[in-house]
Automatic annotation (TrEMBL):
Pfam families linked to this entry: Aldedh (PF00171)
Organism: Providencia manganoxydans
Protein family membership: Belongs to the aldehyde dehydrogenase family.
Signal peptide: none
Active site, UniProt feature: 249
Protein's name in the database: Aldehyde dehydrogenase
Record keywords: Oxidoreductase
Length: 489
């Protein structure tokens, strides 16, 4: 099989690092082989990026002209939606319908930031002196290190590349080891859309080698990271030493709350989707479920019945809900958590095993699992499993519920199911999380800011203001009636 090239400073070339593979998690076959980037590739990409963003033809380009590149990329993604969906599913095993949704969201993100280019500008602060005017302008930061995880690469890559390019920067993307394909394909589309060479590089490879060298490089002036909290913390230390900014989208252990007046049908469908879509490999997975004691039995019966209907299978088939987990090692980690839950006194209501279907034995499949009988103190309620495991806790006191829902190092998202919107708003206000869904779950909008409280992150992605996260503000004082300052006379 021919090895894939990587994209370094506008050139497609063999990586100079170790051989690596992209494997289809459904049966572990090798989809593509490539050599990862090495430290020389990092150096070449950063030098090319620094030259490219400083080039007068790019720096002086009005932002609405940069927008045309993003619009072309958006159109190219839409033209090639089936190919990109297939690639995303091969790379990380995400079921077809979800992968397709992500591809469409990447096209929408590129289009959104093209539109932001048209409307975003500087400010004219109020004048404090009649003969002085001040302008507040925004300039690019320079070379951006964008580091992304494997669970939704096309969406997380585009959430970083589009605003960074719209703001006039150069981007070096380091995708996760397991999922290099979609990121390299995006580079191809940006090149085809006319992005000048050097403004985007894609450097697959290990985080501890390629990612580390990239963020430490003196010419890298911002780190935009999505991934685990521990990695995010390490990167924040590096950024602090360099005195550069970071934006961090990190882990979660999101509470979902079903109040006693909830519409059981609505809530059961929402909870099922909130935890088991993407096999629970989502930062915002609703993995801690609090159910009012008054409706616990009927609600759990409905949720269990719906979960039993989920089709486990090859994610390339359109009707499949549950595909494989990303790697055998990750499935092992999920199994360890389930064992730990049992050891801590939990009982398995549903799932808890590798599916027995002979056709699934080559892949990293795991049954959607529901665990009861634990308190919020259990390890599986405090730690992010990142798999199809839901832990359910009954409650009857709202004040205790709020304390428990907030008793987590994480603060990414929460769901509330109730017909009483006044109560829902009060609860939403009391939860220490960055996003609250009321009578819905896991819906996104590129125009609505997203990010975490506490150890779930720093900064926000999406929304008009997120462009400014990739810019630095400059104030210019303009004397309208210049007079000598006779201070020294
Ligand atoms: P991870 O932190 O292990 O890796 C993420 C990326 O960081 C990868 O590209 C990896 O190679 C790189 N990396 C690892 N160590 C590095 C280092 N020392 N220096 C530089 N780069 C390094 O996370 P993962 O396992 O790929 O992804 C799962 C995690 O991502 C979960 O915790 C999940 O909640 C989180 N996530 C968060 C969001 C969000 O928006 N908040 C979205 C998706 C995933």
């Amino acid at each position: 099989m021919k090895k894939l090239d990587i994209f370094v400073g506008g050139k497609w070339q063999q990586g100079r690092g170790n051989e690596m593979h992209s494997r289809f998690p459904g049966d572990q076959h090798i989809v593509a082989t490539l050599n990862s980037a090495n430290l020389e590739d990092v150096e070449d990409a950063v030098l090319a990026a620094d030259k490219a963003w400083r080039a007068p033809s790019w720096r002086s380009q009005p932002s609405h002209q940069r927008a045309t590149i993003l619009l072309k990329v958006s159109a190219l993604i839409e033209e090639r939606i089936d190919e990109l969906t297939h690639l995303q599913t091969l790379d990380n095993g995400k079921p077809w319908a979800e992968a397709r949704g992500l591809v469409m969201s990447a096209a929408a993100t590129a289009r959104y930031f093209a539109a932001v280019c048209e409307v975003s500008g500087g400010e004219l602060p109020p004048r404090r002196q009649s003969d002085m005017m001040t302008l507040s302008t925004y300039q690019p930061v320079g070379v951006i290190a964008a580091i992304t995880p494997w669970n939704s690469p096309i969406a997380s890559d585009m959430q970083k590349i589009a605003p960074a390019i719209a703001a006039g920067n150069a981007v070096i993307l380091k995708p996760a080891e397991a999922t290099p394909l979609i990121s390299l394909k995006l580079a191809e589309l940006f090149e085809q859309a006319g992005l000048p060479a050097g403004l985007l590089s894609v450097l697959p490879g290990k985080g501890s080698i390629v990612g580390d060298a990239l963020v430490r490089h003196p010419l890298v002036r911002k780190i935009s990271f999505t991934g685990g909290t521990n990695t995010g913390r390490q990167l924040a230390h590096i950024a602090a030493d360099k005195l550069i900014t970071t934006s961090l989208e990190l882990g979660g252990k999101s509470p979902t709350i079903v109040l006693e007046d909830a519409d059981i049908e609505l809530a059961a469908h929402g909870v099922c989707y909130g935890i088991f879509s993407s096999m629970g490999q989502a930062c915002i997975a609703g993995s801690r479920l609090f159910v009012a004691k008054a409706i616990y039995k009927p609600f759990m019966e409905r949720l269990t019945a719906l979960t039993q209907q989920l089709i486990i299978g090859d994610p390339r088939q359109e009707r499949v809900h549950i595909g494989p987990l990303i790697t055998p090692a990750h499935r092992e980690s999920v199994i360890r958590y389930v064992t730990q839950a049992i050891n801590e006194g939990g009982t398995i209501r549903l799932g808890g095993e590798i599916p027995s279907d002979p056709s699934l034995q080559e892949g990293n499949y795991y049954q959607p699992t529901i665990i009861e009988g634990l308190t919020n103190q259990a390890s599986v309620c405090q730690e992010e499993i990142f798999g199809p495991v839901l832990v359910v806790i009954p409650f009857d006191d709202e004040a205790e519920l709020i304390d428990e829902a907030n008793d987590s190092i994480y603060g990414l998202a929460a769901g509330i199911w109730t017909k009483d919107y006044t109560r829902a708003f009060k609860l939403a206000d009391a939860l220490d999380v960055g996003t609250v869904w009321i009578n819905t779950y896991k819906v996104f909008s590129i125009s609505t800011p997203f990010g975490g409280f506490k150890e779930s992150g720093l900064g926000r992605e999406k929304g008009i203001e997120s462009l400014k996260a990739y810019m630095q503000q400059k104030s210019i004082f303009l004397a309208l009636n210049p007079q000598p300052n006779r201070w020294c006379e």
